[in-house]
Every structure is written in structure tokens, then in C-alpha cells.
Amino acid sequence: FTDADWSKTIGALRSRAGITSGTNTLPTKVDSYLKNTFFPEINSPVLLEIRRERQVELALEGFRFNDLKRWKLGPLMANLPWTGIYIPALDKLIDIDHNGTPDVVFYDGSKSAPSITVPAGVAKVAIGGKSTNFQTMTSDNHLEWFKAVKRNWDDNNRQYLYPIPSAAIVLNENLTQNPGWSNLK
Fold first, then answer.
1. Can you name the residues that pair with 145 across neighbouring β-strands?
2. Which residue from 63, 135, 176, 178 puts its CA 20 to 30 A from 106's CA?
3. Whole-model pTM?
4. 3-state secondary structure string, the chain?
């Protein structure tokens, strides 16, 4: 991977997003947070940044679970909290896309509505309380999603493979079930 490769791929993505530094040359320093939190076995700053960029660029497009399986990092699905954007305060109009007009207001879900006047077209999002959307706010003002939903990663790592449908095994006697799936009912 060369500086030219970087500039044409990761650098181009970052430039499109308005990032001006680090778009033309390969990274030379490991991001300690990224390494320690997600990829302790990786020492290459280039690979770490490629994985970060893939996560950012493909956010909410359904690739993350299979990426973690491909990289043998399934336990991250169960161990890391699902935190979201930083919310400066409840009952405050927020301009998420920085175009000069408010987009959303987050408010205490135990109340029926925000305590401020909300202009038409602004999304109202209840947090916690009686809200049914399973969002809470962490002590450092980040959204935490689905706190009530416990995610698991089996110790036998069977989740790295999908089960082969029993109908396929019946049709082809040479097929055997993937490890960890044969005794399930």
C-alpha cells in the first residue's frame, strides 16, 4: 500500500467529507484508542485506519456484523456498549447537519413533549422515561441504544458461521452441519 494508493482511496473518502489532513500520505502512528479498544492484535497504523474508515463510511449499511465476524472479533458485539451521538442537553434545539436550522430536539421521555417550543419540521426524540424507543443517555451525554437488549456471543464461536439449513443437508448427504449448530432444536 503506497501513499498514492492511500490518496486515491481513504484519502479521497476523507477529502470528500471535508477532512484536510492525512489524506495524501499513509498514517505512521497507531491510534492507541482504536488499537486498545477494538483491535489490540493490530500494530499497523494503516490497517487500523482502513478499518476505522470502513466502519465510518459504511455506518448503518449492515456491514459491521459481518466485518466483525470476518476479523474474528465477534465478542465485541456483546462487550461494547452501543453508544450514539453526543447530546449537549435535553430540551435544546440541535442543528445536526450545521446548515443553520435546527433538526432535532431530545427530551426527557417521562414527559409527554419537550419543555421548549419546537418549530415545525424538527424531530422530537424522547430519551428514557416512558419512551418505548429503548434509548437512554449516558453520564457523559451520549445516547445509549437498546440498553435493555442483552447481546450475546457464544463461547463456542458458532456465530462465526451460519447453520446449514436441514433441507440442504437432506438433499446432499455430503453436507455436514457447521460446528456448534448440530445439537440445536
1. 135
2. 63
3. 0.60
4. CCHHHHHHCHHHHHHHCCCCCCCCCCCCCCCHHHHHHCCCCCCCHHHHHHHHHHHHHCCCCCCHHHHHHHCCCCCHHHHCCCEEEECCCCCCEECCCCCCCCCEEEEECCCCCCCCCCCCCCEEEEECCCCCCCEEECCCCEEEECCCCCCCCCCCCHHHCCCCCHHHHHHCCCCCCCCCCCCCC
